[in-house]
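User: Sequence recovery, please. Input:
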């Protein structure tokens, strides 16, 4: 149990023995109850070859522009860097629900980016990991040579059949078409 004064200047944290231990830590949390279908997605692009720098740098302004349009359901977008060598940049997005995220991924400009990337990764690798408040998780790792995230501990399988789309990997099912069908990608 923690007790904080009205001025939040002093806090006391109680140990199992019941005696107060002074702390200067201002502990806070969030109430996610207004977001029962919240989805958090981490995305990253890793440079695999020198040509990948151009690909990665070229995506920055495109992504910024797409975020500025405030897609329906996107609550927050944050950028960050995983490493400088090899260059590995990423972002974290919070979506109101999976349907909003999936709808956006199947519209321009994302649909076009994804189709082009699947034709040629431009010297990069791309991945995402999705987590839902309701408990579903899924991931994809395209041209990622070094295991990390789920792929560092869970069995890695081909993204084919029931593992082809994010909706199916998250066990959402549904009839939403893939951005690029499995048949078109592998013919």
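Assistant: Recovered sequence (187 residues):
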């Amino acid at each position: 149990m923690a007790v904080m004064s009205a001025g939040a200047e002093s806090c006391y944290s109680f140990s199992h023995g019941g005696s107060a231990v002074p702390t200067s830590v201002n502990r806070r949390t969030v109430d996610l109850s207004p977001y029962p279908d919240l989805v958090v997605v981490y995305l990253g692009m890793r440079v695999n070859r020198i040509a990948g720098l151009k690909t990665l740098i070229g995506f920055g302004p495109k992504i910024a522009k797409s975020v500025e349009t405030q897609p329906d359901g996107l609550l927050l977008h944050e950028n960050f860097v995983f490493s400088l060598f090899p260059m590995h940049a990423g972002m974290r997005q919070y979506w109101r629900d999976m349907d909003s995220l999936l709808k956006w991924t199947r519209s321009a400009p994302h649909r076009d980016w994804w189709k082009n990337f699947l034709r040629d990764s431009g010297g990069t690798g791309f991945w995402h990991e999705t987590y839902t408040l309701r408990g579903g998780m899924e991931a994809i790792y395209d041209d990622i040579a070094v295991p990390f995230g789920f792929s560092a501990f869970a069995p890695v399988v081909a993204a084919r059949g029931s593992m082809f789309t994010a909706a199916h990997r998250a066990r959402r099912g549904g009839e939403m078409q893939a951005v690029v069908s499995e048949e078109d990608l592998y013919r």
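The CA atoms of residues 19 and 53 lie 56 Å apart.
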